[in-house]
Specification:
The protein has 14 helices and 13 strands. By secondary structure, it is an alpha/beta fold. The chain has a ten-stranded mixed β-sheet with strand order 3-2-4-13-12-5-6-11-9-10, sandwiched between helices. The protein has a three-stranded mixed β-sheet with strand order 1-7-8, covered by helices on one side. The protein is globular and about 65 Å long. The model has no long low-confidence stretch (mean pLDDT about 90).
Length: about 400
């Protein structure tokens, strides 16, 4: 546990400080910042961070693919790849910091970050119980939109989830309060969830603009507003206000998180859904479920988008069990490759992102990866992927 052991007076003072900080953050959101125009940048700087567990392995494969796809641009100085080494668990523990300041400065010197999974320590492991590196990066880079597409054509599924990324139950997840009891130890534990109007407005606009610009008609808002009446109720109300005022052409509906979790496995209903808007915690849970329907967490990539920075990563975690069981040669790189494709689209190289997506799909058919010896080795999968990319470019135009 990381909460502070306080008495009532101290808890009230601590909560007041949190309220003031969140009021200030809400005001900063309103001021905003501008996304770079990647079409006019003389050089797009891409940071690569392997993270922990299987992260360095799959990120190295992604780097190999990126260097091939962007070979000409790298040679001409129009693209630059920078390796970031400071996000390993060992370094973060040594610095006693979820994201060391020098590492954060390196990341901020680039335009986008392609990141492998990072391990989040937890109570009882005998090491510092650091905040999630992902939570820290999303907060520090203000990456408010977590975008996770899920596509299963043969099941009629074409979903895109917009998870609010900087508020909800996660923003103050390491700043809860433990209230002292009459005896030694804590008697009550409190955590806090935060919802701000500007924070909800920008995730709502992101999702609805995506729907409008991509021929989608239906946007579903997912909360638990019948029970979490204040925070979730405010989230739902603001989303509906934005829809009614700015996107009257869209069909808007709302669902409770428990019912939507059931809907995703209901074959009669799930084909009808297109775009989702969710608070932070519900988005984390529901997108993992959706990824399993697509074929597993190893198949899903995600984007974390802000007004200035963007981070792309696999949906899954660092998977230390794969290493412990000696299965590293069979690790599935598709999640980071899908994230890589999303990153290419974000920086204005969507044609190359599409080539990568098609090559991933084709290689998955020829060399199915299971993570076990009954599936393809990662090297064989990547070799087939590179052949597919080369064929797509044509021998005379290969990068």
């Amino acid at each position: 546990m990381t909460g502070k052991l306080l008495n009532i007076e101290q808890a009230v003072a601590s909560f007041r400080k949190l309220l003031e900080q969140q009021q200030q953050r809400s005001a900063q959101i309103k001021s905003g910042s501008r996304l770079p125009d990647f079409a006019t940048l003389p050089c797009v700087r891409i940071a690569l961070a392997g993270g922990d567990g299987i992260g360095p392995v799959i990120t190295q494969y992604a780097q190999r693919v990126l260097e091939y796809l962007l070979k000409d641009e790298i040679a001409q100085g129009k693209a630059e790849l920078t390796e970031i080494t400071g996000l390993t668990l060992e370094n973060r523990l040594a610095q006693n910091c979820s994201v060391p300041e020098t590492t954060l400065r390196q990341i901020k010197s680039c335009h986008v970050l392609l990141k492998g999974p990072t391990t989040t320590p937890q109570a009882g492991q005998g090491i510092a119980n650091l905040e999630s590196a992902n939570v820290t990066l999303r907060r520090e880079l203000d990456l408010y939109a977590n975008v996770r597409p899920v596509n299963v054509p043969d099941k009629g599924i074409d979903w895109c989830f917009f998870r609010e990324n900087t508020e909800g139950a996660y923003v103050l997840g390491s700043q809860g309060v433990l209230l002292e009891g009459r005896e030694a130890g804590s008697e009550l534990a409190f955590d806090f969830a935060v919802t701000t109007r500007p924070g909800v407005e920008r995730i709502a606009r992101s999702a609805m603009n995506y729907a409008k610009n991509n021929g989608k008609k239906r946007v579903s808002i997912v909360t638990k507003a019948n029970i979490i009446k204040t925070g979730d109720g405010n989230f739902l109300q603001i989303c509906k206000e934005i829809a009614g005022r700015e996107f009257p052409e869209l069909e808007i509906d709302d669902w409770y998180i428990d019912i939507m979790a059931a809907n995703l496995v209901n074959e009669d209903l799930r084909r009808k859904f297109q775009v989702f808007i969710l608070p932070n915690l519900y988005g984390d849970i529901l997108t993992d479920e959706a990824a399993e329907i697509q074929g597993g967490l190893g198949t899903a990539g995600s984007a974390n988008i802000g007004d200035r920075y963007a981070m792309f990563e696999p949906v899954h975690g660092s998977a230390p069990r794969l290493i412990e069981e000696g299965r590293l040669a069979y690790v599935d790189p598709r999640s980071v490759l899908r994230a890589c494709s999303m990153m290419l689209a974000h920086i204005g190289r969507g044609d190359k992102g599409n080539i990568l997506d098609r090559a991933v799909t084709a290689a998955s058919t020829l060399h199915p990866i299971t993570g076990f010896e009954n599936g393809a080795k990662t090297e064989d999968f990547i070799a087939e992927l590179m052949k597919g990319i080369t064929r797509a470019f044509g021998s005379a135009q290969a990068p």
